[in-house]
Design brief:
10 helices; cell membrane; transmembrane helix; YitT; four-stranded antiparallel β-sheet; 62% helix; DUF2179; membrane; elongated
């Protein structure tokens, strides 16, 4: 392993460490003292233990995670197995250690659900972004993503964990813990998606102008963005014209708008959100990307 690869691996594990510690903090600070259902494999274990007392929650979690990690190793690779085992072990140990050092007091359940879900989503997003999981439903969602690549990780996690929350609610005969848990899961899903995908937001502009060459020159040289010329024709006038298509970073929207309007005040400008842009100047394609 060369120096660059070692540095990249070390940086990856530093982020996974930060995410795992935040994961433990979110659980101990917001979930545990307010009795908010967390869902996931742990939630399923709680529900099943209610009906099958001799099957402990810990044993259930272990039995379910072993085949999940083997599937992860088979379909995603050894890096996911090692990093996920690290994240799962660190977050679990951190939960117990933090609980021994300090006990967080209970707070307003709704506030705890929103803040806890958001902090847990931040932690999960950091862990997922480095190719790891915390095991359980996180790993299930990661494997499901292979079969359903068009779904976001947050949405897959929400579907899996809501199922667990409903089972926990039925097992305990209490709907409140599950409802607060559902609120937390929505916040968790949103923040996870924001961490994984929100930082890569881009825009696409379609520009119809009489000043084609000056606009192209400004976009390519002043902003360093590529421009594609699309052949178009006005439906009413029948006049043939170019439609300029340009993808750019979200922070450049003001500069693009100002530049186009200064060169041609009558230009027709359409700006659309681009969820993902792959290519030079944006994100590189990765086969197993989330």
């Amino acid at each position: 392993m060369n120096t660059q690869s070692a540095k990249k691996l070390l940086t990856s594990y530093l982020w996974i460490t930060m995410g795992s510690l935040l994961y433990a903090l979110a659980f101990n600070w917001f979930y545990a003292p307010n009795q908010i259902a967390l869902g996931g494999i742990t939630g399923l274990g709680q529900a099943i233990h209610t009906y099958i007392p001799f099957l402990s929650v810990g044993l259930f979690v272990l039995l379910v995670n072993i085949p999940l990690f083997l599937l992860g190793w088979r379909f995603i690779g050894g890096h996911l197995l090692a990093s996920s085992l690290y994240a799962m072990a660190l977050s679990s140990l951190a939960m117990d250690a933090l609980n021994l050092v300090f006990s967080f007091p209970a707070t307003d359940p709704m506030l705890a659900a929103v803040c806890g879900g958001a902090l847990l989503g931040l932690a999960a997003g950091l862990i997922f972004s480095k190719g790891a999981t915390t095991g359980g439903t996180d790993l299930i969602a990661r494997l499901m993503k292979l079969a359903l690549p068009w779904l976001s990780m947050g949405k897959v996690l929400l579907a899996v964990d809501v199922t667990a929350l409903l089972l926990v609610s039925a097992a305990y005969g209490s709907i409140n813990a599950a409802l607060y848990g559902l609120v937390a899961q929505v916040a968790y899903s949103y923040v996870t998606d924001t961490v994984l995908y929100g930082l890569d937001k881009a825009k696409v502009a379609y520009i119809i102008t009489q000043q084609t060459d000056p606009v192209v020159e400004a976009l390519t040289h002043n902003l360093g963005r590529g421009v594609t010329l699309l052949h178009g024709q006005g439906a009413w006038s029948g006049q043939e014209k170019y439609v300029l298509m340009c993808a750019f970073k979200q922070r450049q929207i003001v500069a693009v708008r100002q530049m186009v309007k200064e060169l041609d005040p009558d230009a027709f400008l359409i700006v659309c959100d681009a969820h993902e842009v792959l290519g030079r100047g944006f994100t590189r394609y990765k086969k197993n990307a989330l």
